[in-house]
Design goal:
heterodimer; A: alpha/beta; 11-stranded mixed β-sheet; 21 strands; about 35% strand; globular; B: alpha/beta; Rossmann fold; 6-stranded mixed β-sheet; 4-stranded antiparallel β-sheet; 10 strands
C-alpha cells in the first residue's frame, strides 16, 4: 500500500481544512480526528495504479476545494418526510450534512441507547477499537472520513433486545456548493439482539461530497437486516465504508440499491471472526449518462463454519461505469467455510463500461468457495419471444431489464423500499430504452 | 387468411426456403411435415418475424396485409401466434404478469380497456383448468426451470389467452411423452373454431392422431414436394420421407 503519489497541493488543502475543523470541533473527538489525519497523510491520495483505486478516477474529487459543513443548513420537514418510509415515522434518525439533527429525527420508538460519539469515546474499549481501526486503515478516503467526522453516533442495542420494526437513517446532503461531510455511526449489537435498518442517502442540491464510515459490531447471536438506498443527486460524490465484525452465530444481511453519482464508491470490509457467523451482501445499481458505482469488497473468513454470500448486479446504460473488486480471504483454520460471490452486468449501450475482479484467497483445505462474473447484453431470443406475444420492443426490453434487477431487489425485506425502488430506481430504465 | 406466394427465405444470405406457395383459409388445419433440414423451422421463423431471418423473394399476405413488413409485435397484435419449438426461459418475469401484459396489449390494440387484474386471474384460472395446468404455473417465472412438457403446455396456455386467428405450432409434439402430448393436443383442439386456423409443423405423424389436419404438405429442400389429406401423413409414417423426397 505504499505506492501512493503525494499530490501535495490536494492534500495540503485538506490539511488546512482540518485545522479549521479542530478549531470548531469537539475536543473529545480531536484525538481520533488527529490520528486519522496522520493516517491520511501517510497514505496519501491514490494515483490511478493504486490497488484500491484501479477502476476509478479521483482526480477531480481530490482537486476540488471543499468547505466544511456544520449541519446548520435548514432542510424542510416536507423534504425529510418525503424520504421517510411508511412504518419508520417513529423510528428515524435524520443526519443533515453529516450531523444528527435531533429536531428532524423521531427517536421515541427506538429502544436503543443512542450516544453521541464524543461521549461514547469515554468508553476506553470503544476508543481502543476506533484507534486500532485507524491504525489498520488502508483506504485513504475512510481515513479522511474519520479525520473529518462530525458528531457521530453510537447506536447501542442491549443484549436480548429485539427492536421491532425497521429503524430508518436518512442522510440528507444540502449541497449547492462544494462541501464535504463525514457522517459516522457505530452500531453495537449485544448478544442475541436484532435490528432492522434502512438507510437512504439523498441530496437537495449537487456539488457535495459525502464520505461516510459505519462500523457494525455484532456480538454472539445478533442479527441485522440492513438495506441501503444510495439516491444522491447525480452531481455529487458519494463514498462509504462499511466495516462489519461478526461474532459467534451472528448474521448480517445487507442489500444495497444504488442510483450512482458522478463518482460513488462502496467499500465493505467484513470479518467473520467466530464460528457460525453469516454474511449476505447483495447490491444492485442502475446507471445512466455518466453515473458511476464502484464496489470494493474484502471478506475475511477468520473462523470455521462461516457462510458468506455476495451477489451484485449492475444495469449500465449511456456512458456509465461500474466496477467490482471483491476478494474473499479464507484464513488458515477457517475450515468448512462456505462462500460464494457472483457479479452480473447488463450492458445497455455501446459506451458503457464495467470492470470486474472477483478474487479468492484460500489458506484452508476443506472449504467450498465459488466466484464468477458475467457481462452481457439483452438476450435477443428472450427479447424476440416477448415481442411475439404482442409486447413492443421497448416494453419487452424494459421487462427484461427489470427482471434482471428483480432477484436482488426481492432480497430486500421491506416492501416499502421495494415499492420505492420499483417506482424510482427501475424507472430509470424507461427513459432510453428505444 | 394467409397467402404465401413463391416465398424464398433464409438467413445470413443462405437460401433455405426455395419457393413455397400455400393458401390457408379460416377453419383449416394444415400440417407441414418434412425431414430434418427441409426448412420447416425456417418457415416458422419467417412467419413469426424473427429478425435473423430474411425473405429473399415472394410475399406473404395475412388478411390481405403484407406480413413481411410487420415486426413480431405487429404480427402478434394482428392475430398470429407462434408456438415455439424451444420456448425461451425468461427468469425474473412472472408468468401470470407476463400473460396479463400480453393479453392487455391485444385489448389495447382492439380499442378495449385493459383487463382488471382480478378478472384476468379468473380468466387465467379458467384457461389453466381446461389445460389441466396446476396453479403453481401462475407464480413461476416464464418458462424458467420448466420441463419440456411444461414449456409446451405454457405455450398452449399463451395461445388460449391470446386467442389468435392463426396459430403456428412448431414441433409442439417434440420432447413430449404420450400423456403430455394428449393434454397439449386436447388443449389445442378446444381452442379451435371455424374462424381460426392452425399450421402444425412436425416431424412425426403421431401428433396428427390427436389433431386431425385438413391438409398435409411435405417439405423437402425448401419446397413443398407433395400435398394431400391426412392419409398422406400415414403413408409417410409407413414409408418414410425418402418415398416422397426421392420421387421428386
Amino acid at each position: 500500500m505504499s505506492d501512493t503519489l503525494v499530490e501535495s497541493s490536494a492534500e495540503s488543502a485538506f490539511l488546512d481544512l482540518h485545522k479549521k475543523l479542530i478549531e470548531q470541533g469537539s475536543p473529545a473527538l480531536a484525538e481520533l480526528q488527529q490520528a486519522a489525519l496522520n493516517r491520511f497523510e501517510l497514505l496519501g491520495f491514490p494515483h490511478s495504479k493504486h490497488e484500491m483505486y484501479t477502476y476509478l478516477n479521483t482526480k477531480e474529487l481530490v482537486e476540488t476545494a471543499f468547505g466544511l459543513s456544520d449541519g446548520s443548513k435548514k432542510v424542510s420537514e416536507d423534504f425529510v418526510a418525503g424520504h421517510i418510509y411508511p412504518g419508520c415515522e417513529s423510528q428515524c434518525l435524520v443526519f443533515v450534512d453529516g450531523i444528527l439533527n435531533r429536531n428532524l429525527s423521531r427517536l421515541e420508538g427506538v429502544s436503543a441507547n443512542l450516544v453521541p460519539l464524543s461521549e461514547a469515546v469515554s468508553d476506553q474499549e470503544l476508543k481502543k477499537y476506533l484507534l486500532e481501526t485507524i491504525e489498520d486503515e488502508n483506504d485513504v478516503f475512510a481515513a479522511l472520513s474519520t479525520a473529518f467526522c462530525g458528531e457521530g453516533l453510537v447506536f447501542k442495542v442491549g443484549d436480548n433486545t429485539q427492536i421491532s420494526g425497521p429503524v430508518q437513517v436518512l442522510f440528507v446532503s444540502t449541497g449547492g456548493s462544494p462541501v464535504m461531510h463525514a457522517p459516522r455511526i457505530v452500531w453495537q449489537l449485544g448478544k442475541l439482539s436484532e435490528v432492522k435498518v434502512i438507510e437512504k442517502f439523498v441530496g437537495v442540491e449537487g456539488g457535495y461530497f459525502i464520505n461516510a464510515v459505519q462500523d457494525w459490531l455484532l456480538a454472539e447471536g445478533a442479527g441485522v437486516a440492513f438495506t441501503q438506498v444510495q439516491a444522491d443527486v447525480s452531481d455529487s460524490w458519494h463514498f462509504s465504508k462499511t466495516r462489519v465484525h461478526l461474532h459467534r452465530n451472528s448474521r448480517f444481511h445487507s442489500s444495497n440499491a444504488s442510483f450512482g453519482t458522478q463518482l460513488a464508491r462502496h467499500h465493505y470490509d467484513v470479518r467473520l471472526k467466530e464460528e457460525g457467523s453469516e454474511l449476505r451482501l447483495n447490491g444492485v445499481s442502475v446507471l445512466d449518462d455518466k453515473e458511476q458505482v464502484h464496489n470494493f469488497i474484502r471478506i475475511h473468513h477468520e473462523a470455521p463454519q462461516c457462510i458468506s454470500h455476495q451477489h451484485f448486479k449492475n444495469i449500465i446504460n449511456g456512458h456509465a461505469r461500474s466496477s467490482f473488486d471483491g476478494t474473499v480471504i479464507v484464513n488458515q483454520g477457517a475450515q468448512l467455510t462456505s462462500s460464494d460471490q457472483l457479479i452480473n452486468n447488463l450492458m445497455l449501450s455501446n459506451d458503457c463500461h464495467a470492470d470486474n475482479k472477483p478474487n479468492l484467497m484460500i489458506f484452508a483445505d476443506d472449504v467450498k468457495c465459488t466466484h464468477g462474473a458475467t457481462i452481457g447484453q439483452i438476450d435477443e431470443e428472450q427479447w424476440f419471444y416477448l415481442q411475439t406475444r404482442g409486447l413492443s420492443a421497448r416494453v419487452a426490453k424494459e421487462l427484461l431489464t427489470r427482471s434482471f434487477a428483480k432477484s436482488i431487489i426481492e432480497t430486500i425485506e421491506f416492501p416499502e423500499v421495494v415499492k420505492d425502488l420499483n417506482g424510482t430506481l427501475l424507472k430509470k430504465l424507461e427513459v432510453r430504452n428505444d | 387468411m394467409l397467402e404465401i406466394k413463391d416465398l424464398h427465405a433464409g438467413f445470413d444470405g443462405n437460401e433455405i426456403i426455395k419457393g413455397i406457395s400455400l393458401t390457408i383459409k379460416k377453419g383449416e388445419i394444415h400440417a407441414v411435415m418434412g425431414p430434418n433440414g427441409s426448412g420447416k423451422s425456417t418457415m416458422a421463423k419467417i412467419l413469426s418475424g424473427h429478425p435473423s431471418y430474411e425473405a429473399m423473394g415472394g410475399e406473404i399476405l395475412f388478411d390481405g396485409e403484407n406480413l413481411l413488413e410487420m415486426d413480431a409485435e405487429q404480427r402478434s397484435l394482428a392475430g398470429i401466434f407462434m408456438g415455439f419449438q424451444y420456448p425461451v426461459e425468461v427468469p425474473g418475469v412472472n408468468n401470470a404478469e407476463f400473460l396479463r401484459m400480453a393479453h392487455n396489449a391485444r385489448r389495447v390494440k382492439a380499442g378495449e380497456e385493459e383487463i382488471d387484474p382480478l378478472d384476468f386471474d379468473d380468466l387465467l384460472s379458467e384457461k389453466m383448468k381446461t389445460l389441466g395446468m396446476e396453479k403453481k404455473y401462475k407464480e413461476r417465472n416464464l418458462n424458467d426451470g420448466f420441463s419440456g412438457g411444461e414449456k409446451k403446455k405454457n405455450e398452449i396456455l399463451q395461445m388460449a389467452i391470446l386467442e389468435p386467428k392463426l396459430s403456428i405450432l412448431d414441433e409442439t409434439d417434440s420432447g413430449l411423452d404420450i400423456d403430455a402430448l394428449r393434454v397439449v393436443s386436447e388443449g389445442v383442439n378446444k381452442l379451435r373454431n371455424e374462424n381460426n386456423a392452425l399450421i402444425l409443423i412436425t416431424h412425426y405423424q403421431r401428433l396428427l392422431d390427436y389433431i386431425k389436419p385438413d391438409y398435409v404438405h411435405v417439405l423437402s429442400d425448401g419446397k413443398i414436394v407433395k400435398s394431400g389429406d391426412k392419409s398422406l401423413a400415414l403413408e409417410l409414417e409407413s414409408q418414410g420421407y425418402d418415398w416422397v423426397t426421392t420421387a421428386n
